[in-house]
Structure formats: C-alpha cells, structure tokens
Amino acid sequence: MRYLSEFRDGKLSKRVLEAISAKVRALPAGEIKIMEVCGTHTVAIFRSGLRALLPPQIVLLSGPGCPVCVTPTGYIDRAVELGRVPSVTVATFGDMVKVPGSRSNLERERARGADIRVVYSVTDAVKIAESSAPKKMVFLGVGFETTAPTIASAILEAQKKGLKNFYVLSAHKLIPPAMEALLSDKEVKIDAFLCPGHVSVIIGAKSYQSLSEKFKKPCVVSGFEPLDVLQSILMILTQISEGTSKSEIQYTRCVTRDGNIQAQRLMDRVFEVCDANWRGLGTIPRSGLRIREEFATFDASRQFEVNLPRERSDRHCLCGEVLRGIKTPPQCGLFTKVCTPESPVGPCMVSSEGTCSAYFKYGRKV
Fold it and tell me: Taking the complete model, does pTM exceed 0.85, yes or no?
C-alpha cells in the first residue's frame, strides 16, 4: 500500500533506531524531552511500541493535542443545558458524549430523553436541520485548525440555503499559541516538539518557525506511522546536535511550508481569533476561534440564553497536569481504579485520542 507499508518497514526502522542511538550517545548525558502535541501521535506511538524501543534518554511527553480533552467544563455544561431545551437538537461527534460536566454529561441527558445525536460530520447536522425545521439544531464545534474549515464551510452552506434553525457552539482552538504557553510555563520542561500532522496540513510548518526561533526549540512535523515518528525524532536529535532550532517537515507527503491556503481563507472568512480557555492551561490569548459578527445568527452562544451551574470538577483528576506534560496517567490516583473508559472521571480517559485512554489501552502492556 503506497505511503503506508513503506513507513512500517521493520528493517529500515531498525536502521533509524540505530542512528537515533548513535546521536544520543554523542550528546551530553541527560534526558531529552520531546512532546508529541497531537493525540493521534500519542496513540500511534503506544500502538507501535516505540517507547520501549527508544534509548531511555529520550522521554516522550503527551501534550494538549486532543480537542475533546482541552475543552473546559463550562462548555460541556452549556451543551448539557442546550440539550435540555425541548426545541433543540444537539449534534456532536461521538467523543463528546461521555465528557463529564459539572453535574451531568450528554450521554446521561440523552438517556433522560434529550434529543442528542452523534454525527460523523457537520454536514450531517446541516441535513438534520433542513429536515427537522423549525426545530433548532445546535452543532458542537469542538476541534483545532483541522476541523475549523469544515465548520466554516457548513455555516456558509447554511447561509446559502437560508436555514434559520442551524447553529454552532464554537470551541475551536489554535495549536501554536498553546505550544507557546507551554514553553512559557516554568513547570513544563520541553526540549523539542513533534508537531501535529493533521493540523499542519492546514496551517503549514511555517506556523512553528517563530516558536523555534524565540524559544530555541526544534520543531518537526511528523506523520503517524512508526517510521514517520522515528525519522522525526532523528531530525530533532540532528538539530540538537548541530545546535540549531528550526521548523522542519518529515511529513512531506502531506504537509507544506504554507499549508492549505484555501482552507485558511475559509476559516478567516467565518471565524476571528479570540482568547480561549483550555482545560489545564487556563486562558491563552489569541488561541481560539469565535464566529464573526457577520454570522452571528448561526452562533449558539449568542442566540441561546441558558442558566449554567457553578463549574466544578473532581479535584483528584490530573487531566490538567497530563495535558501540560508534567504528569503521566499512572501518577493519577484515579487511573484504572475509579477512572476507566467505561466510567471516565476526566476527558483524557474519554477521547480515543486522550493520553489516559492511550495509557489504559496500550501503556499497561508495555
């Protein structure tokens, strides 16, 4: 299979691992902490067993690259309250239904009779809105730069069709500002970034260049196959050994320096940059996307007034620390005991891209 089997070549992977080991031996003693920003990378690394193959000096940290995981409790509370409105249908991707709010979650509300539907794309939500008017459809727009263009396209399509019952509750976030916030956090120790492949298809590798220059940290955009990740780590080690810090692309079969210009224009047409609240990281300036005033009639946050409960979460849950890379799931007292995929306490155990979920499924076997 082109562009897949080639990146699972065991013999070539062994050669790259040998090159990685040689680079590590030539560097000063000490740990090299590399954060994989993307949740899909976390899962791919665990699934392929790469952690056990790498030299012990290389420490892979999982970051805030799971959109469900970084969505704050207040957003879940708002979604729950919207689901309780009889005239509203809430549409969401499947990972969101089990995320705990302050008092409930979408799965529980659906069991109580709320019209909450799991969809595979925002296009499905637009179709439901068309067929169920005048009932109101609220789509939960949670994601990074990868999904934002599709949501923007759906809003433009709804406008073109003259739909009066389609809304988006936006919680879109931007990855580079979160990376900068992590590098500015004195508790977080990161030597380099394994940059997200999917996001970078849209925004391009140049989006990380200023981070590399400002903080002197190598950034390499990686694909998701085992050899992709190994090659990316080797590129990072090469930069460290040469004393350079720049943004490079390993995932050249999909990612360019400039990204997808058309998708960027689509996002900019419908959304504007704003401050955003990230679970575990707090409010990060200019790290979110809100719907522009021109499209306010499609903005659920403007069109619906709901009473929100006092925001609360389990104080023993370490999702926030896990998302910052300063704790691992096994360091949480709830992990595998109280918190499991069947009964998650925090969102990192809910999402298929969540770090706790990956550790639960794969990490205990390593």
Answer: yes
